[in-house]
Amino acid sequence: AQKVTQTQTSISVVEKTTVTMDCVYETRDSSYFLFWYKQTASGEIVFLIRQDSYKKENATVGHYSLNFQKPKSSIGLIITATQIEDSAVYFCAMREGGSWQLIFGSGTQLTVMP
Amino acid sequence: ETAVFQTPNYHVTQVGNEVSFNCKQTLGHDTMYWYKQDSKKLLKIMFSYNNKQLIVNETVPRRFSPQSSDKAHLNLRIKSVEPEDSAVYLCASSSGNSDYTFGSGTRLLVI
Q: N or C: which end of chain A has fewer CB within 10 A?
């Protein structure tokens, strides 16, 4: 069965620094899709970035990038030059190739301080 | 505007009542979902609806039922709500292997 684990409950950083959020996943499927979402204080859930299992190159979108370590079943999210408005809960999620379910981790609360 | 729209934003009801939440997507996606987010922010998938095929998470109580008129709409009905149903209910949609787009959620409070 698929499972997503985020062990960091909360992280605090000073703005303009770089932060990394950890995520490990479990799957028996050779094809799967990994996602990171952000939930703002208003409750809105926004898609940030994805990594498809067959792609070796780490995905990058704006100031978000991924550290995909397939042998370790790990997909870390890196945010560079953090801004106050990056403060939110960040969710890692996975969907197996043949599955209907997008399964989420428990989330990491990021607080960016001035 | 293309997005996932949910109504109402907030609903308060008493134990035993029936409630219904609406969800509409204008993204042209072929699959819609309902998620439940509890007070600890845990997101749990409840249902998936695609081409008139409904897939139910086996842990969802029978008092919950999705209702769809077409692929752009997926409503959620709860018969006889219970206190543990208090949560935020999030509707989402996707197409193929795309990412999921979420609505803004409906917060339910059962008193």
A: C
Residues A28-47: tens digit of each pLDDT: 999 999 999 999 999 999 99
In angstroms, rounded to a whole number, what is the distance separating the alpha carbons of residues A49 and B91? 20
Cis peptide before B61 (omega within 30 of 0): no
CB contact under 8 A, A47 and B100: yes
Whether chain B has a CB inside 8 Å of the CB on A101: the answer is yes
Please give the single-letter amino acid code of residue B13.
T
Amino acid code (one letter) for A83: Q
How far apart are the C-alpha atoms of B20 and B73, rounded to whole Å? 13
- All residues of chain A having their beta carbon less than 8 Å from the beta carbon of residue B55 are 100
Residue B101 CB-half CA count within 13 A = 20
**Interval B13-35: pLDDT, tens:** 999 999 999 999 999 999 999 99
